[in-house]
């Protein structure tokens, strides 16, 4: 049989996933290694296949890390099957890493923490330039909707970042249906995690009940709208963070046991920027993250000053002295 007959047909779904990976690794140095976080599910398997294809053409190496969380019977077999698929795709090295998931708190959060720790450890051991994660546009929409429901502030609506350090998410603009179709087109059989259909998990209920209902009521396009919102908020937040960083340099004076901020400079800024400057200054000096309510209390020393006494934050005392806010370790 001719080589062209054996080669998988390039379909729109396969092309979309490959294009996303190509853009994600376009700055990886020639000869460097990228690792795919592979569960064996449709998203990560489509990602692994695309990475194997694109890495070769980009002159970089592609490997895989399979994390076995040990949370269900047969997880070890599923991990070995995913590793075998990665090797068949031409990925090398392929590492299977068993992890211990803490029983404390949310099982989803504990599993995520254990997984990322394992991925970053293997990246360091192998000297990889990047780790590719298989989160899709649909995962992003679920994340934004959960953040909105929890009301935990604008940062929760940013969703997942396309890049944080060595972690890259090439598929955040690719639909879940596309990765499933890519696997079918390539003739690879993904593993379907039963946890993804378990309604005990909040994210599963959002995926199977909430988002479909929103699409039904609002006429579709909800996932795309949520991800566009996340992108816009993240861009705005990055701009505000840049301006806050510039302002802090001019407004901060370091003092014994802490720092002070110029009241006039804070007052001249709009609330969103003023509050970011306060949070940034405190985080930088005291390694403490202020809540919104705490930040607003400090801000009132600027905008609603009528001689009130000091504000006591965790480990910090804030007073207004003339035209400066003084922060000292309590």
From TrEMBL:
Keywords: ATP-binding, Cytoplasm, Ligase, Nucleotide-binding, tRNA processing. It catalyses: cytidine(34) in tRNA(Ile2) + L-lysine + ATP = lysidine(34) in tRNA(Ile2) + AMP + diphosphate + H(+). It is found in: Cytoplasm. It is an enzyme of class 6 (ligase). Residues 261-325 form the tRNA(Ile)-lysidine synthase substrate-binding domain. Coiled coil: none annotated. Residues 34-209 form the tRNA(Ile)-lysidine/2-thiocytidine synthase N-terminal domain. Belongs to the tRNA(Ile)-lysidine synthase family. This is tRNA(Ile)-lysidine synthase.
